Amino acid sequence: MTAMLSVAELGHTYQAKDGAHTAIADLSFEVGAGELVCVVGPSGCGKSTLLRTISGLIRPTRGEVSLHGDAVRGVPEDLAVVFQDYSRSLFPWLTVQKNVEFPLKRTLGRAQRRARAAEVLELVGLGKAARKYPWQLSGGMQQRVAIARALAYRPALLLMDEPFASVDAQTRFELEDLLLKVKEEHDTTVLVVTHDIDESVYLGDRILVLSGSPASVVADLRVDLPAPREQIATRESEAFVALRGEVARLLNVGKGAEELRARRKADERSARKWAEAERAEVSRAEAEDRAATS
Amino acid sequence: MNRFAQRWLVFAGLVVAWELGTWFADDPFFPRPTVIADAARGLWLSGPVDQLYLSDAVFQHVLPSIGRLLGGWAIAAVIGVAIGVALGRSATAMQYAGPVLTFLRSVPPPALVPVFLLVFNVGTQMQLATIVFGVLWPILLNSVDGARSVDTTKYETSAVFRIPKAQWVLGVVLPAAAPKIFAGLRVSLSLSLVLMVVSELVGTDNGIGSQLLVAQREFDFPDMWAGIVLLGILGYALNTVLLAFERRALSWQPKRERTPATVED
Amino acid sequence: MRALTRGLLGVAGFLVVWELFGRSGLVPAEYLPPPTVVGVELVGLLGDEAFLRDVIATVLALLIAVGLSTGIAVPLGLVLGSVPAVRHATRAVVEFLRPIPSVALIPLAILLLGIGPEMKITLAVYAAVWPILFNTIYALDELDPLLVETARVFGTGRVRVLFSVALPSALPFVLTGVRLAATTCLVVLVSVELLAGGSRGLGQFIMDSHSGVGRMDLVLAGTVVAGVIGFLVNEGLERAQRRWVAWSSATGGRP
Ligand SMILES: Nc1ncnc2c1ncn2[C@@H]1O[C@H](COP(=O)(O)OP(=O)(O)O)[C@@H](O)[C@H]1O
Ligand SMILES: [Mg+2]
């Protein structure tokens, strides 16, 4: 397997008004073509920053990122990102359908664009919501729109920043399987950032475990679970459980008191996110009722 | 009774009260509304059938006034939005231009009428210049605010999908700035009306403003009141049309929580 | 610090462009005198008693007009804002009166009130009442119902609620209205002085310099002073707003 993406001695320090903050200390890894790599690490350790440097949105202060052997300067072709802040990444003045079509304007004609958007919206289960505006959807649905938009773009490299964080458990399973399927079909290379250990094991061909802030690679694990993966059987398998335990231990290894605190905060945050997602589902149901009656 | 009927009933009641009051007072300064309406009909609706009953005064005075008002406003809108959006996307440029803009905005536009009179002579150019200079700033400064409001994630999303420059400006920055731009347009539309009158009081022998002046010189109070009422109706109509247009253009917004323009200026 | 230097550079750039344009011959130099000429005149004017009296006349009229319109519009806004029935009933009247430009009333006002200071102040008040009125009404609309209910639960009467809860939370909006009203007042005052003549003021000075002696340098100097007054009024009220009602984010003003 040839290295599609290579990150070498990467470091990034933000310059803020109140001093400098090092988000990434020293990262080196490679991702082969067609691989799905999960990056796990505690909140605030620099995962989003890593994705920004890979996508060429910011220039790292140290080291280098290269794609297909070429150093990344500016945003490369054939790359899509699902941003963590999905609600802001959608355009409120465009319908769901138009949001998905938005990046296709450059490359596809009108009819093709429309067909492609309809197809992926169907894939993520939002066929019925195509003509709605993003604010009419729940958080989880908005996140699916953002995912649909990235998939419709058919990138060679897909970067996803905690893409399933605010969808309900069942949809999450469906979306995970969808991602695996799309990756197989289009031979897409995928880098998924997550702080969910189970998810990283279920999805990944490899798992990169990052230390707390500033980020560095603690371990690079190969996931030897048989394909195709299956939500219940795979998660019950011995290999899965063992790997999950290993990642969990790695994330706790060498943690000082400070990092423990950071983790607890992160857990609280994700608990809150789940609660929010639940509430969002309720309000989604309400919104749909309203839309149906109006 | 619904609110609509209620409010126009109150309106009608006040007009009747005004009629009775002026009838009792019999003061030449305050003609009765019916007399004013009659004067208005004589002024503007006494034309031949093939002109839809519109009199020549409509074509000589009213339409040119409206034309200048809308023309000046449109020119200011194009310049203001273009420069405002460009400045709004560059923090550095705004640091350079900010103080100058703040000062120019503070200059009462009529103060520059003498300058425009000299540079452009009496006539349409001078009137347009007065209107454009006067209404440019609310549009420009609101456009700056609007263009600034595009958040980082939307910028990064657009950058990642490598959307072309034109799509970025027309498809992202303009729609994001649109609510603010419309607020500016609303403020400046009423200001256009003011400056139209100002420029006509000094700069021409045609237009609603100059008709007002003529009526004053001839102590023709019904005609004068008719002119004032016409300006009120004109302002109301223009604002209503703009609001309808704005509502359509911003129909994507979650809730129509339009604050009065005054709050946003 | 960098922003300040850049701002100053921007102003300098503006002056240089004006200077070059004024001297380029594109427009006759006496039509658009360059800032060096205007600046000298301006310094001279600042020591000129008659000019200072004009400035003071305009500023005084401005203060009176802003005071009067606040005194009229705030109580009116409180009534219209807290009694919805009255507000809806008067809506058509208000919507009809508001768009009448105050300058259109100049001819009428001259005949009714003569050309003294009362006339220009009256017109300025007519124009300035609206922003304060609408902001006051808007403020009452925005009033947190929870706050009112809390107060009423504690047995506070309607009038006390108005003064102890509604007014303080409406203050930032009212101040925004006053700020906008002040700007409007200045525009109307200068317009009226310019168009109607009669009472002394900055607008009258500008018009005299233009039509009497054709001194565009004086016209521009007067304009600059008018701009400075406008700037100071706006800036001053914005500062006051930020200081007095720092607790509110709803200042509605531009930073
Ligand atoms: N633009 C920025 N300027 C300064 N600091 C930043 C910026 N973006 C992120 N950071 C800081 O860098 C660290 C890593 O952030 P991020 O990459 O978003 O972490 P993660 O995605 O792992 O939660 C955090 O401490 C965050 O506060
Ligand atoms: Mg992140």
Describe the structure.
- The complex is a heterotrimer of chains A (294), B (265) and C (255).
- By secondary structure, chain A is an alpha/beta fold.
- Chain A has one domain: 3-Layer(aba) Sandwich (Rossmann fold).
- Chain A has 10 helices and 10 strands.
- Chain A has a 10-stranded mixed β-sheet with strand order 5-4-1-2-10-9-3-8-7-6, with helices on both faces.
- In chain A, helix 4 (110-123) crosses helix 5 and helix 7 (197-203) packs across helix 9.
- The longest helix of chain A has 37 residues, at 257-293.
- Chain B is mainly α and 265 residues long.
- Chain B is built from 11 helices and no strands.
- The longest helix of chain B has 39 residues, at 165-203.
- Chain B is globular, with a radius of gyration of 22 Å.
- Chain C is built from 10 helices and no strands.
- In chain C, helix 2 packs across helix 10 and helix 5 crosses helix 6 (117-142).
- Chain C is globular.
- Chains in contact: A-B, B-C.
- Chains A and B meet through strand 6 of A and helix 7 and helix 8 of B.
- Adenosine-5'-diphosphate is lined by residues 14, 16, 21, 23, 41, 43-49, 213 of chain A.
Key features of this structure:
heterotrimer; A: 294 residues; alpha/beta; Rossmann fold; 10 strands; C: 255 residues; mainly alpha; MetI-like fold; 10 helices; 80% helix; globular; disordered C terminus; binds adenosine-5'-diphosphate; binds magnesium ion
Helix and strand topology:
The complex is a heterotrimer of chains A (294), B (265) and C (255).
Chain A: E1 3-16, E2 19-32, E3 36-40, H1 47-54, E4 62-67, E5 70-71, E6 79-82, H2 86-89, H3 96-101, H4 110-123, H5 139-152, E7 157-161, H6 169-186, E8 189-194, H7 197-203, E9 206-210, E10 215-222, H8 231-236, H9 238-252, H10 257-293
Parallel strand pairs in A: 2-10, 3-8, 3-9, 6-7, 7-8
Antiparallel strand pairs in A: 1-2, 1-4, 4-5, 9-10
Chain B: H1 3-25, H2 33-44, H3 56-88, H4 91-106, H5 113-120, H6 124-148, H7 152-160, H8 165-203, H9 208-217, H10 221-249, H11 261-264
Helix pairs in contact in B: 2-10, 3-6, 3-8, 5-6, 6-8, 8-9, 8-10, 9-10
Chain C: H1 2-24, H2 35-46, H3 49-82, H4 84-97, H5 106-113, H6 117-142, H7 145-153, H8 158-196, H9 202-212, H10 216-244
The structure holds adenosine-5'-diphosphate and magnesium ion.
Magnesium ion (MG) binds at residues 47-48, 84, 161 of chain A.
